[in-house]
């Protein structure tokens, strides 16, 4: 039987084909123009990132060269203002090299500005930084979309580089526990007065902070000058004695601290041992262990000492000026019978002694390697002095002494766990310039 074709049905397939062709054309236009918009946006974002980073790099270099540190960073300081102005010039220049013309304002979403902050207190530390903010606007030339959309295809992108000044570890706090956990003797900061009502633990400069708990035992008197006391989880006030100023609970932790490990395989480093004798001078290098039990003097020549197992001194005297002791494994232990005079490389070591620093680390006295959960015991007699940062990211710092063992600690103590004890007066003095400082640095913040 033949199917009857009515005249009213003629041409229906053609209409469907026309609609299908229009649809395919629309999808093709969307794919082509959408791809162009996306590619242009990526190009503009890359240019904004490069521009902002270029400005940030110039700002960081200027802060470093003009000796601006976290301690004296001030948004009204001419050195900071100069760094900000040069950052804008560098950002404009870099954008221009990528064929984007921007100026020193962003009201039209096409320029660069700098913003300075020197007093943002988040409870744990004060934020100080410069932001270099770049905005770039770019129009995409459409091939097909203009048939259905008459407006311009505009991309506006933004990049922010944050520059922090030269800063001591933990934003210049003198004593810091970096552990977020506090369980018995693990984590936190503990002060112990030894039961002596006249015992005083004084921290001069920098302040104290614990990412977890703050405990007091043995009736200590803890006095902090030129710095506060903070903790995140718990505070155990002394049953007797006092802690001043009153500790304040903080809503945030101090960020994880990182210090580049020294190069124990530097060409200047050799495998060495400690020779026998009553008065011995040793040279920088790699040691399985350093033990001193003689009645004479052990002298560490300036430089880096990489110790695989332990550093122990029980008697006599230990002197070292311009030294970094890197504890790869084992403990650092000095008894109260020893006169200790250990000083980290100074802030001028790279200029005055470039053959020593590096591989020794400027301002770093004792560095316990990441993963080493040992103990750094800082004792010594009343004639002893320690100067420089003691950094123990995964272990314990135990500092203090008894009635006749009171070393002078011109140090910064940063450890997973920090214990300070003494049944007479003990002073911990923090001066930023004598300790390890992270150079001015930048990050692509946005």
Give a verbal description of the structure.
The chain is of the alpha/beta class. It has two domains: 14-165, no CATH class; 170-444, no CATH class. The protein has helices at 12-65, 78-97, 349-352, and strands at 111-121, 126-140, 153-164, 167-168, 175-177, 188-192, 200-204, 208-210, 213-217, 221-225, 229-231, 234-236, 242-244, 248-249, 271-272, 279-282, 285-292, 297-300, 303-313, 317-321, 323-327, 332-334, 339-343, 364-368, 375-378, 385-401, 408-422, 426-429, 437-438, 441-444. A six-stranded parallel beta barrel has the order 19-21-24-26-25-22. α1 runs antiparallel to α2. The mean pLDDT is 84.
Domain count: the total is 2
Q: Please give the count of helices.
A: 3
Spatial sequence of strands, sheet with the most strands: 19-21-24-26-25-22
State the helical fraction.
Answer: 10-25%
Structural class: alpha/beta
* Oligomer description: single chain
**Sequence stretches where pLDDT stays below 50 over 5 or more residues:** none
The main pleated sheet reads as: 6 strands, parallel, barrel
Rounded radius of gyration (Å): 31 Å
**Measured distance between first and last alpha carbons:** 74 Å
How would you describe the shape?
globular
The count of strands amounts to: 30
Notable features of this structure?
2 domains; 3 helices; alpha/beta; 446 residues
